[in-house]
Design goal:
With about 650 residues, this protein is of the alpha+beta class. Helices cover about 50% and strands about 20% of the residues. It is built from 21 helices and 17 strands. The chain has a five-stranded antiparallel β-sheet. A five-stranded antiparallel β-sheet has the order 7-6-10-9-8, sandwiched between helices. A hairpin with a 6-residue loop joins strand 3 and strand 4. Helix 6 runs antiparallel to helix 7. The longest helix has about 60 residues. It is elongated and about 165 Å long. The two termini are about 75 Å apart.
Length: about 650
């Protein structure tokens, strides 16, 4: 016993229930629903199908169809039974899909079901009555083909009595799905003037030549609405002798056709406008691989006119054969298979202009259909300028990297030189100071005033030089002998710096106000040096006539409510401010003061080496921050330092 027969015999109740449910779901008004007699005969239809599939016996199928079709209108048989058979087959198919596997058994069961359903359908055709001598039983296979057509299709006797009218025809003339068309005439479907033309012109020509074609009108019988149509009438002669001929009438709605033609025209116009307004070349090839579209941008890019390119293969004129050998095979495969890995993706190709010049292009492909055939559209973009820019950028990046390497090496050598030179200068400098001290102590009595002044000046010069050397050594050590970054409490650093500068603060009769300070990741020794240099600088350049006030404070640039916790070290920053009411300076010197040995005032007025602020900048830059200064002469200065709150962990 086959898998299908097992399902038909064991699942009869489930199949009949599914069949009835599908019949009930047939939509439409009451006059369009399938009659209850079909639901009542569901078990009989299933039994007939089972007998045929199990034993090949068609007699139960003939008996079942004779019972269903008895005394039924000829036109309604196909409309009732054929949909019912589809619903029955669908219900059985659902059971098969749930229960039968593997695939080969499933395929056999479905094929056997189709064979059995075809047998029931054939029995329906044979059982259909033919009333009034018209060939009704022979039209059901024809009905299955034309019932979905949007054209009015009618079969009528030579006396103008319809015995078949498809769904579109019923809709156009206002007949319900189950209304008996044989109670009407062809004259009822047309306005008087249109029918007169058909009767006097079309019918005689059909009788003479067997065919007539022209313009006519249909009339909606319920509303009286008139529709312009294109009409074809022809004679159908039966293949078997003794059967009467019939008349076929086909009407096509002109308005719908005009709307379609207008829509197609508008669509073509939009397509043409898009093609011609595109800034990039667009090329389309048909299923034979020949160019069918070539827009203005393509003309400008390739240097060919549209007429020169249409009908040719792209490899003949647009691309060098040696450069697109692989693409050519791929395009042929896409056109034949309808898909491909490069569709919708960008790739680079080499194209050829009319003068033979090759140029790089970026290309994307898309596949579509025109008149049932595949067409391939290329979207191209000349990337010559981009390639040149990329080449120039790569050369610049290489040169910059080379310069950075040279600069880094030079800076490293300079730092080493500064440290070595400073270190080597310390010893002779100490001897100069030692000998000047001895000269002053042992021979002071024999020196006159001029001699003692010269010794003092030598001693002072040696001290200044030692301060300069110490500053250079400190500057060189900012990067060569730096410590790692760790959490630093800036408030604690400031307190310690103020303690170290206590004597200098008292001498300047100054007050140092410390505001709220934050904690950051930094080199603690360099933070101490940074803040000490900035505060010491403020203490040095004060105005004697006014009490000096130095303010120090530091905060995050974003408040707690503004921080998301996802900022990078470069985004989360701390602003440290050191401001005073000292002598100030001109804004034009705001950058100069950070240079090595740069001074704005005479040495005898304000002591210093001119290296302190240079050390500050180098410390800040080593921490990935910035330092700026703002000032007004006579009103004081403000130094602002921006430092990252945290630093990314170094990669191994």
């Amino acid at each position: 016993m086959s898998e299908l027969v097992q399902i038909l015999t064991s699942d009869e109740a489930a199949i009949c229930q599914g069949y009835v449910q599908r019949l009930g779901q047939t939509g439409g008004p009451a006059d369009e629903r399938l009659p209850p007699v079909l639901a009542e005969n569901g078990p009989a239809l299933l039994g007939a199908l089972t007998a045929f599939c199990r034993d090949g016996d068609a007699e139960p199928a003939h008996a079942c169809m004779e019972m269903i079709c008895h005394d039924a209108p000829a036109e309604s048989i196909g409309r009732w039974v054929l949909p019912a058979l589809r619903h029955l087959s669908s219900a059985i198919r659902g059971q098969i899909m749930e229960r039968v596997f593997p695939q080969d058994q499933l395929d056999r069961a479905l094929a056997q079901l189709d064979e059995g359903t075809d047998a029931l359908r054939q029995c329906c055709f044979e059982a259909a009555p033919t009333g009034g001598g018209e060939p009704a039983g022979e039209i059901y296979q024809f009905e299955a083909l034309v019932d979905d057509s949007s054209d009015f299709i009618c079969l009528a006797s030579l006396q103008g009595k319809p015995f078949f009218l498809n769904a579109a025809g019923r809709r156009l003339v206002g007949l319900g799905r189950w209304d008996d068309a044989s109670t009407t005439t062809l004259r009822d479907f047309h306005p008087e003037e249109a029918w007169t033309t058909l009767y006097e012109t079309a019918v005689p020509e059909v009788n003479q030549t067997g065919r007539w074609q022209g313009r006519s009108q249909l009339c909606q019988m319920q509303t009286g609405q008139v529709i312009d149509v294109e009409t074809t009438m022809f004679l159908i002669r039966p293949p078997r002798p003794g059967k009467p001929a019939c008349l076929a009438v086909v009407h096509r709605d002109c308005q719908g056709r005009r709307q379609i033609e207008e829509s197609l025209g508008e669509s073509e116009a939009r397509k043409r406008a898009i093609l011609e307004s595109s800034l990039d070349p667009i090329v389309t090839i048909n299923h034979e691989g020949r160019v069918t579209e070539f827009n203005r941008a393509a003309e400008a890019a390739f240097g060919h006119t549209r007429d020169e390119v249409l009908g040719k293969e792209p490899s003949e004129i647009l691309f060098p054969e040696s450069k697109i050998a692989g693409h050519h095979d791929r395009v042929e495969r896409y056109l034949s298979a309808g898909d491909g890995s490069m569709l919708g993706k960008r790739s680079e190709v080499v194209a050829r202009r009319a003068d033979g010049e090759l140029f790089p292009a970026e290309m994307a492909m898309t596949l579509s259909q025109e008149q049932g055939q595949p067409v391939l559209t290329f979207f191209l973009r000349d990337i010559s300028d981009r390639k040149q820019a990329e080449k120039a950028q790569a050369q610049y990046a290489e040169a910059l990297e080379r310069s950075n390497r040279e600069l880094g090496r030079s800076n490293k050598e300079l730092e080493q030189f500064a440290y070595v030179a400073s270190h080597d200068l310390q010893e002779p400098l100490r001897k100069i100071r030692t000998f000047s001290d001895r000269l002053e102590m042992k021979y002071a009595a024999v020196l006159d005033d001029t001699g003692r002044e010269l010794v003092q000046r030598m001693h002072n010069a040696a001290g200044r030089m030692q301060a300069l050397i110490s500053g250079l050594m400190t500057l060189s050590r900012v990067t060569t002998r730096a410590q790692g970054f760790e959490p630093v409490d800036l408030a604690k650093i400031v307190r310690e710096v103020i303690s170290d500068l206590e004597v200098q603060i008292e001498q300047a009769e100054a007050r140092v106000d410390v505001g709220k300070m934050s904690s950051i990741q930094a080199d603690p020794l360099q933070m101490r040096q940074l803040l000490q240099n900035l505060i010491s600088n403020a203490l040095k350049f004060h105005r004697p006539e006014e009490p000096l006030v130095v303010k120090v404070y530091g905060r995050f640039t974003k408040g707690r409510s503004e921080r998301t916790g996802r900022e990078s070290p470069a985004e989360a920053q701390c602003r440290i401010v050191v401001e005073d009411n000292g002598i100030g300076f001109e804004e034009k010197y705001a950058e100069r003061i950070f240079g090595v040995f740069q001074r704005l005032h005479p040495r005898d007025v304000y002591r210093g080496t001119g290296i302190g602020l240079a050390i500050c900048r180098k410390i800040v830059e080593r921490h990935g921050g910035t330092i700026t200064a703002e000032s007004t002469p006579g009103r004081g200065s403000t130094f602002v330092v921006l430092l990252p709150v945290a630093h990314p962990k170094p990669k191994n």
